[in-house]
Design brief:
The chain is mainly α. The protein has one domain: DhaL domain (Serine Threonine Protein Phosphatase 5, Tetratricopeptide repeat). The chain has 10 helices and no strands. Helix 1 runs antiparallel to helix 3, helix 2 packs antiparallel against helix 10 and helix 3 crosses helix 5. The longest helix is centred in the C-terminal third of the chain and has 20 residues.
Length: about 210
Amino acid sequence: MSETEILVGVITAISKKLIDAEKMLTELDSPIGDADCGTGVKRGFTAVQDEIASLHGMEPPDILKKVGFTLACTIGGTSGAMLGTGFIETGKSLADKTDLSLSSISTAMEHALSVIKRRGGNTEKGDKTLVDSLEPAVNSFRASAVGGNTDMVSVLEEALARARAGSDDTVEMIAKKGRASYLGERSKGHRDPGTVVICLMFEAALDYLKSTNI
């Protein structure tokens, strides 16, 4: 399979998983947000799903940018901006790369993370946002690249484990960003839904790679 075919397969798997997660994400968002996380994410990834056919004729960096712009334009709000930025900036960083090596992907994700944090109002790990899952996962990618691990399945398994641990940590956090921050102490005891979106994305990518035996 070509890199384009693999990436389109991953994007397709991610879209389906997040569309199916609408109810769960809405339930997580209801106590601490506007109860629109599920519908927004579903709207965004339904729009991405509608673009799948056109992605097959594009190079991987352009695919990522197209997905990012689609999410940013359809999800709306800070979540849309942060998720869209993640794909767009990853695509931009990979534009001059000749192949999607783990090292180049890791570097692109690190760049995207830094832009996401700025776009989210200088968000940091510990603020109870999607960064609490994304940053540990990105750091895991870097550690795998530095350590010479070239098995993408095991790389994703470790990244997913770190993302899930980061999501678990948000349960006892007091939100410092977004709608949840208005609740102060009352935001404690609830999982941040954005971290679950990140976990589901890594989970979908992992499941796809396992199913294709790449």
